[in-house]
Amino acid sequence: HTHTSHRMPVSRVAVLGIAALLASQADAFSPLSAFSGVSLRSGLGSSLARKQCPVAAARVAPLRMTATGLDAEAATDGGPFLDDAPKYISKAEAKALAEELKSEDGGFSTEQLVEMAGHSVADAIFEAYPPSTLMGAKVLVICGKGLNGAEGLTAARHLHHYGYSVAVVYPEKKRDSEGQLLQPNAGLEKQVRNLGVSVYMSNPGFLDQIGLVVDAAHGVSFEGERPKAPWDVIFKQLIDPTVLGTKPLVSVDMPSGWDADAGMPEQPVPDPEDEAPPAPIPVLYPDTLISLGAPKMGVSKYQGAHYLGLRTIPLSAKDKYGLNTPSFAGARTYTRLSDLTTEQVARLEASVAAEEAKSALAAAAPAAAAAAAAAAAVPQAAVPPP
Fold first, then answer.
1. 221: which DSSP letter?
2. 108 contacts 101 by C-beta, under 8 angstroms
3. Closest CA to 140 of 166, 163, 122, 115
4. pLDDT beyond 70 at 341
5. H or E segment at 143?
6. Which of 25, 102, 187, 255 has CB atoms 3.0–4.6 Å from 336's, for a disulfide?
7. pLDDT tens per residue across span 45-96
8. What's the predicted TM-score (pTM) here?
9. Cα–Cα distance between 298 and 3 in angstroms, integer?
C-alpha cells in the first residue's frame, strides 16, 4: 500500500531478490502465488538436534500475489524476533484452551478446529519444503487415531492440492461400541482416499522414494515413556539412518514420544548388574516443529525450525492464559517462532536463483519463437540436381 502517486513497477525477480536479502518470515501459500513458496528449510535433513543460527536482524516477508495484486502489507511485516519469546503452556492449559474453543461461548466445532489446524500445517510445510525442492519425492504423513492424526489427514489433503505427491500411514483407528469408525477421522480418511492418496497400515515399501516425513501420530495426548505397538516399530524406522533417519522430519504440535510438559524423554541408564541392558527409547527430534494454538512447555528447549499454526485464539483466551504469541501477517495461517538458519538462507537464495532463471527463460521464449518463425518464412533456394 503506497502513499505516493507515482509507483515503480515491481518485477517478480526484484520481489524475490528483496526477500532473499532480508531473509524473512515467509508468507502463506496461495494458489494464486506459486512464486511465494521460496524455500526456507534446512538443506540437510536429520533426526538429530540442530542448533538454530540467527542470521538476520531485519526480516521482511516475500510479497504475495493475490487477486488484487501484490500484498505489500504482508511484505512489510517484520515478524517475531527471538526476544519476543511466546509463552509456553502446560498440557492442562492446552486441554482447557481446546475445551473453551469448543464451548458454547467459544463457538468452534471440533471439525472446524481440525480443519484450520491441518490447513496451517500444510501452509507452513509449503514454506519450509516447497514441492520443487523435493524433486518429485513423496511426502509421508504418519497419522495417529486421535485429533493429532486428524490434523495430519487434513494436512495431507491440502498438501495433495498444493502439488505434493502424498502417502499416508494410518495404523490405528478409533471405533465406537458398535465398531463404526469415529469422526472426524473417518471422513478425513475418505477425503484423502478419494483424491487417490494411498493409505497404509504401516510404513510402505517405497521408503527410498520418500523426501519428507510428517509426524502427526500423538501430539499432546502422548503419555508414558515408551511408544507402544505399532508405533515402536514405526518410530525406530523414522530414526534409523538406513531407513528414514536422514529424511527431513516435521512434527505437528508435539514431537511424538515427547511429553507436553516434561519434553523429550531421557534414555534409560543401563545397570551394570543387568545381563541385558534396556533397549533405547525411539525418540523423534524433528527438523521442523509446527505448534498449534500456543507452543507447549515440553518444547521450550527445542532448537529446530519452529512455526505456530491455528490462527484462531480469541482475545479473551489470550488474556486468560497470558498468551503473547506473535501476530499473523496478512492472509497467513501460520507464523514463525524461530530465526532462519544459515542453511535455510542458502536454500532461499538458491530458490531465488532458480526463479530468476525461470523468468529469464520465459522472457526469452517469445523472441526465440519469433526468430524461428521468421527463419521458417524465408524461401529456400532450389538446389540443382547433380
1. G
2. yes
3. 166
4. no
5. strand 138-143
6. 25
7. 333 332 222 222 222 233 232 232 333 333 334 444 444 568 899 999 999 9
8. 0.70
9. 46
